[in-house]
Structure formats: C-alpha cells, structure tokens
Amino acid sequence: MDEKPKLEFRFAGEADAALVLRFIKELAEYEEMSDQVTATEESLRRELFEKKRAEVLFAMEDGEEIGFALFFHNFSTFLGKSGMYLEDLFIRPEKRGRGVGTAIFKKLAGIAKERGYGRMEWSCLNWNESGVQFYYSLGAEAMSEWTVYRLTEDGIAKLSEE
Question: How far are the Cα atoms of 6, 54, 98, 123 from residue 149, in angstroms, in the given order?
Fold first, then answer.
C-alpha cells in the first residue's frame, strides 16, 4: 500500500464551478450514469454559490484537487437538529486506496461536529460493494428499514398540478 498522502482541504468558490462539474461528470461516468448529468457550470454557480444550496469540499494533494464531497444540511425533527447529507463523494481512481476517502470523511465529521449537526447521512448504490465495505469500516450503519423514494422534476410538476 502506498504511503498515506499529505492532504489539504478547501471549500469550493464560485470560480470552481467548472471543476465541480468535471468531478460530477467523472462520478457519473464511474456510476455509468453519464446520460443523467444535466448540470451546467451556470446551474452549479447559481445553486451552490448564489443560493448556497450545498457546499463542496475538495481534497487536495500537491496543490491538485483529487477528490470532492458535495453536501448540504438536512433536519431531523426527532433530534431537533440539522444534519449533514453527503450527496456525492468521489476520488479520482488513481488516487484511491491510500486513505483519501477516510481523510475526507474525517474532515466532514469535523465540520459536522463543529456545526453541531446531529448526524451524517448518505446513500450508496447497492452494487458498489467496495463503497459499502468502506462505509461499514467507518462505523456507519445501513438503514435497511428505510427505503429512499424520489419524485423527479416531471413527477413534481405533475403532482403540483393535481
């Protein structure tokens, strides 16, 4: 195993919209979902930096962004606290297996603790066995009694018109 990398972290700024989009496209390619990416630099600039709907954290090695995490806060009525929902985590394939993912999660946990969040949550594709095993190694628990449901834009439009 390679030596653990010396990582730095930084939050994305408005000038990073193209880089965020590049990471999203790399993630979509990995997940074989490239055809579903409709985000643009402009939509990311508007949603992330003008409306502040989510945040992006970059993991950097030798001044180069090698991974990213996109997250936003959610809310637990039972806890009466905000939480962190990790929408995307991606590390460039050639940089995997050296502790980068663990380092990103530790950084995110520090942010969650600092902000007083009650929990961190995320989803993982069922076929991503290495991801599932990685999350278990962090001490995460699968929420097997919960099923994720989704309305897409078309479903939202249809329901709102009824």
Answer: 39, 21, 34, 12
Phi, psi of 65 (to 5 degrees): -75, 120
Counts of helices then strands in the chain (DSSP H, E): 5, 5
What are 9-23's pLDDT values in tens digits? 999 999 999 999 999
pLDDT recorded at residue 86: 97
State pTM to two decimals: 0.90
**pLDDT grade for 128, boundaries at 50, 70 and 90:** confident
Task: State the pLDDT at residue 125.
Answer: 87
Measured distance CA(32)–CA(26) in Å, rounded: 10
Catalytic residues: 135
CA nearest neighbour of 58 among 28, 96, 25, 103 = 103
Q: Dihedrals φ, ψ of 97, to 5°?
A: 85, 10
Q: What is the SS3 assignment for 82-133?
A: EEEEEEEEEECHHHCCCCHHHHHHHHHHHHHHHHCCCCEEECCCCCCHHHHH
Q: Report DSSP letters for 135-146, one per residue.
A: HHHTT----TT-
Residue 110 tokens read as 């520090």
CA 139 – CA 137 distance, rounded (Å):
5
